[in-house]
Design brief:
Chain B: Keywords: 2Fe-2S, Iron, Iron-sulfur, Metal-binding. The complex is a heterodimer of chains A (520) and B (157). Chain A is built from 21 helices and 16 strands. Chain A has 520 residues and is an alpha/beta fold. With 157 residues, chain B is α+β, with helices and mostly antiparallel strands. Chain B contains seven helices and five strands. The chains are: A alpha/beta (520), B alpha+beta (157).
Chain lengths: 520, 157
């Protein structure tokens, strides 16, 4: 690989975040300016998004990374000899695996993301793909369910419900027809791990869903992807086509008893369809109106049939659990939060991206040690954890360990593991108002606390900030939040008060009237 | 542009439905296909879809209006969507939104009078570490500066 003239292998991500900052142009420039044969592999992203576009070159000593690379940098990089893995260029980051940000992580669900060509079946198998499915098919469905339960895997979509228990319910439900549905309607701001897994290692999700189908006796599966993710949709469709060609889907999967058909369905730009029952309605071709529970989807789900509904990362963790055994997974983590979580650092952050690590890391470690503080260079003032319905936390709570129960005890939630950072220019009353405004816009409208409460919430916050009957309106807002929390049909209305109340609790000065009191 | 005679709306809609005949709960895939082919869902398609799928017109109308993606009027020649969700708010999305509205003289969900640009808001494009994010005709751009946005707003560009 070292002598000039040999084919150099260069990796330039196809991940949409990398493409959004010029990866396509960089890939074209590499192919055009290499001056010798190159094989450009469009891999997923390593998740170090501040370094995108990140270019890697294969060498006998492993991959060497360069970034962030602009198209106009390519000529100089080639001249500096990067196709032979030269390390002298200022953009050289050294061996990819030695970059401490990446090296210190525990990549389990994301083990192959950024490493493999996402749509190459050969690459997938060469990097351990299918071993989970093969093992699962050698076990009985009940044994597979038992292993998933033993692993302690909890739903990664936010609610954290034990996956094995859900699967057991579906397995034991009597029905000719059962479904496995993957909730890939990743609408929460600050979360992008589902997207990156679908774009960077789609076969893992396909394998996880196929294992789920075997475990519960399902014959059909749907991946409900939001329309805002066109690249993920294309990649999944391509991967599913390949999986059929390889005999990984369809009749007699891997020559077993299992037959499983898998389809991609595209959402319609409605945030509420990330709520599982709303998603099921949408999959049935209806308005995404939330259903009352019970009945639970495990018993009466898609078209009234027993249905597994899991998030992308939940299903994407299953192949590893089956391949390496439940103990390996359960050994990671703290308390009842077992395994790893794929944390996502976004917003105003210097080093944003994917940090997959065992539960228990502190919020401060994520934002400071990994994130490197704000991108603007100003002090961090607030972070929102767990999406638009998650709490805003001040830096004084940076000691909190990332663990479902610890966050719940602090009136916050881990949710899907998204962490959005704001600097000291943020107006927290404005953020609280936005939470209500967003809920008003995206509510499905079925229940009154959410549909009407959110509209009233915006009005009340406006009055508080304007100094109109301040004390009285603060009390009204408190009552309104309680009502929405207790009375809403689903998490949309039920959790919207979380960002509002946390902003009020931790940043009360921002709600002071600008006319009669000093602003912050 | 082909020289073959233009198909009627009804024929086009019915042939799209035919392609999705075997899909379970086919209305959303059908509406996406109609959007893909025609740019919008013409209200005249509603009774045709209702007839084909054995639904009421109200059912079809209800689904179209529930989802932000389905529009009943043709979009502008260029569609610009600005992310206004929290992660992008933290890195200047509000300024981009204000600039775009001021420059184009339209609000979100509106099209300029000359039919050149449709401006939309979107809540999260999954590009939260490399924001602020803007999508132009389906293509995603990250770390968008006000100057870059100005370039995207150039009419005729």
């Amino acid at each position: 690989m070292t002598a000039s003239g040999q084919v150099a292998t260069v990796y330039v991500p196809r991940d949409s975040a990398a493409r959004s900052v010029g990866a396509d142009e960089v890939a074209d420039a590499v192919a055009a300016q290499a001056g010798r044969p190159v094989r450009v592999v469009r891999n997923g992203s390593r998740g170090m998004l501040w370094l995108e576009p990140l270019v890697e070159v294969e060498t006998p000593a492993g991959r060497i990374a360069y970034g962030p690379v602009a198209p106009e940098d390519v000529e100089g990089l080639v001249a500096a000899g990067i196709l032979d893995g030269a390390t002298g260029h200022p953009l050289c980051l050294g061996p990819t695996e030695d970059i401490d940000w990446l090296r210190d992580q525990t990549r389990v669900t994301f083990a192959r993301v950024g490493v493999v060509d996402p749509v190459s079946a050969e690459d997938y198998v060469a990097h351990g793909g299918l071993s989970g499915l093969r093992r699962a098919l050698s076990l009985s469905p009940a044994q597979v369910v038992a292993e998933v339960t033993e692993s302690g895997l909890r739903g990664r979509g936010g609610a954290g419900f034990p996956a094995g228990i859900k699967w057991k319910t579906v397995l034991e439900a009597g029905s000719e027809l059962k479904f496995v549905c993957c909730n890939a309607d990743e609408g929460d701001s600050g979360t992008f791990a589902d997207r990156m897994l679908m774009e960077g290692d789609p076969f893992t999700l396909i394998e996880g869903m196929t294992i789920a189908a075997w475990a519960v006796g399902a014959s059909e599966g749907y991946i409900y992807v939001r329309s805002e993710y066109p690249d993920a949709i294309d990649t999944l469709r391509a991967a599913i086509g390949t999986a059929y060609d390889q005999g990984w889907l369809g009749k007699r999967v891997l020559d077993s008893e299992l037959s499983f058909d898998l389809f991609v369905r595209v959402g319609g730009g409605a945030y509420i369809c990330g709520e599982e029952t709303s998603m099921l309605e949408s999959l049935e071709g209806k308005r995404g109106m939330v259903r009352a529970k019970p009945p639970i989807p495990a018993l009466e789900g898609l078209f009234g049939k027993p249905t597994v509904v899991n998030n992308v990362l939940t299903l994407g963790s299953v192949p590893m659990i089956l391949a390496d055994g439940p103990a390996a997974y359960a050994d990671l983590g703290v308390g009842r939060s077992r395994g790893t979580q794929v944390f996502q650092l976004g917003g105003n952050i210097a080093r944003g991206g994917i940090v997959e690590t065992a539960f228990g890391i502190t919020l401060g470690d994520l934002v400071g040690r990994y994130g490197g503080g704000t991108r603007s260079g100003r002090p961090v003032r607030a972070v929102q954890v767990g999406g638009p319905l998650g709490a805003y936390l001040p830096t004084s709570r940076f000691d909190l360990p990332m663990d479902y129960e610890a966050f719940a005890a602090a009136d916050a939630m881990v949710g899907h593991g998204g962490v959005v950072v704001f600097d000291d220019t943020v107006d927290m009353a404005g953020q609280a108002r936005f939470a209500m405004e967003f809920c008003a816009a995206e509510s499905c409208g079925k229940c009154t606390p959410c549909r009407v409460g959110a509209v009233r919430g915006v009005e009340v916050i406006d009055r508080i900030v304007a100094g109109v009957d301040r004390e009285k309106n603060l009390k009204v807002l408190g009552d309104l939040c309680d009502l929405m929390t207790e009375g809403s049909l689903c998490a949309m209305g039920g959790l919207t008060p979380m960002p509002v109340k946390s902003a009020l609790a931790h940043f009360p000065d921002d709600f002071a009237t600008t006319t009669t009191e000093e602003g912050r | 542009m082909t020289s073959s005679p233009p198909q009627s709306l009804e024929d086009r809609v019915r042939s799209i439905v035919a392609e999705h005949r075997d899909d379970r709960g086919a209305l959303l895939p059908i509406l996406h296909a109609v959007m893909e082919e025609m740019g919008h869902v013409d209200p005249a398609a509603i009774p045709i879809l209702a007839d084909e799928l054995n639904l009421s017109r109200a059912d079809v109308y209800g689904v179209i209006t529930f989802y932000h993606d389905f529009r009943q009027t043709p979009p502008g020649r260029k569609t610009i969507r600005i992310c206004r969700a929290e992660a992008c708010q933290a890195v200047g999305a509000a300024q981009l939104a204000d600039n775009a509205r001021a420059r184009l003289g339209v609000g979100f969900g509106e099209t300029t009078a000359d039919g050149a640009v449709t401006l939309e808001q979107v809540f999260c494009l999954g590009n939260c570490a490399t924001g602020p994010s803007v999508q132009v005709d389906g293509r995603l751009y990250g770390r968008v500066s006000p100057e870059q946005l100005d370039g995207m707003l150039e009419v005729g560009a």
